[in-house]
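check these tokens.
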Amino acid sequence: MMRQTLDAGLPLLGLDLPEETRQKLCDFAAAVVKQNEVMNLTAITEDDQVARLHLLDSLTVCAAAELKGKSLIDVGCGAGFPGVPVAIASPETQVTLLDSLGKRMKWLETILPELGIPARCVTARAEEAVAQYREQFDYAASRAVARLNILLELTAPYVKVGGAVLALKGAAAREELAECAGAMKKLGLKLEDIREYPIGDACHAVIVLRKVSPTPPRYPRRYAKIKQSPL
């Protein structure tokens, strides 16, 4: 069922992936569901839901951006979405997975080599790891981490000028974007596009925000401060 749902959804994203890539996507998703029996990775465990809400949703990144030969950081990757499906579908993209939960990242560090998936794992908080990785990536992607006005301060500092933040959102994408005019200006971002994709009976959006000038060094602030008073 997972494979059927994946196969049916790819044309709607404008993607055509080789057989072995599709299989590897399903293998990774199955590994997440299996590991979920002993570790809290996902609330989504039904095959067709996993294909739609984890795999196809993550692959909207590949549909929304030209990733070949580029670098991408998945900020707050959780169980590996969207970063791992991106690394599988676009092996010529250098993918870095960032999350602060050590147990989860240890599991990813073990399972990814087993499945032959190239991605670097970094265990750290987003607002702290930026000291090492500031403005080093072509793209920063993120999903289900925070509202956009908070998320932008955590992701924009990682992106080179000329690169872009790719924020994966659902039905509230435009509403969240409306809160962000001030944040975008302060962080050096400009709205380029909202790309919407039908997956099942829902609309999934990728908000593409182009980095037009460097993010001032004072950002990101401490997370408590970001949450308390978003830009």
User: Anything to note?
Assistant: The radius of gyration is 17 Å. The mean pLDDT is 93. DSSP finds ten helices and seven strands in the chain. Residues 96 and 120 are 5 Å apart (CA to CA).
